[in-house]
Amino acid sequence: MFTTNNSQAADRYADDYMNRIENAISRHYDEEDFPKMDSFDVERNELSDYLFDKQAILDSEGTERSRYTIYGIIMVIPIVVVAAIPDKSLPYGKMTVLIAILIGIILCVAFRLVQKTLINLRVGKLDTRKKECKSYADAVGAFLAERLEGRDAS
pLDDT per residue over 127-143, tens digit each? Predict the structure, then answer.
């Protein structure tokens, strides 16, 4: 597909939920102990749609770079507001800048909490609508975890 020199980007691509599940299915589906779609009443297209939708929700928070950019902008807003006020009118003198920085940090944390909550709500709604697909994807994830534990024990 593409190559990159950035190993972190490659790791993120490899750890991608959708790819992890689909790759496990393509590699292990013929194995006897691998979960079968028929047992979960799931069709391949339906599972593919579910995985795509879930991955889109998980990716909606953006890349690490875009998140830090947004946090930086949010953090600077209170400082810019304070800078627009004449020094003589600042309520706490020079401490007002520190308070503005603290407010910026609080806004960033609040933004992150709201963002994570919305993502969790959206994933929850998707999982509720597509229970069979979620159960199958969870079974595949459990198979992979079990397989990794077996490798670590060896």
Answer: 999 999 999 999 999 99
Convert the pLDDT of each residue in 3-22 to its tens digit.
444 445 434 443 689 999 99
Distance of alpha carbon 122 from alpha carbon 92, whole angstroms: 42
CA nearest neighbour of 57 among 118, 11, 110: 118
Report yes or no: 133 and 42 within 8 Å, Cβ to Cβ.
yes
The token pair that represents 71 in the structure block: 């946090």
Chain length of the chain: 154
Question: Do 35 and 29 contact (CB within 8 A), yes or no?
Answer: no
H helices of 3-63, in order, are 7-14, 17-28, 44-59
pTM above 0.85, yes or no: no
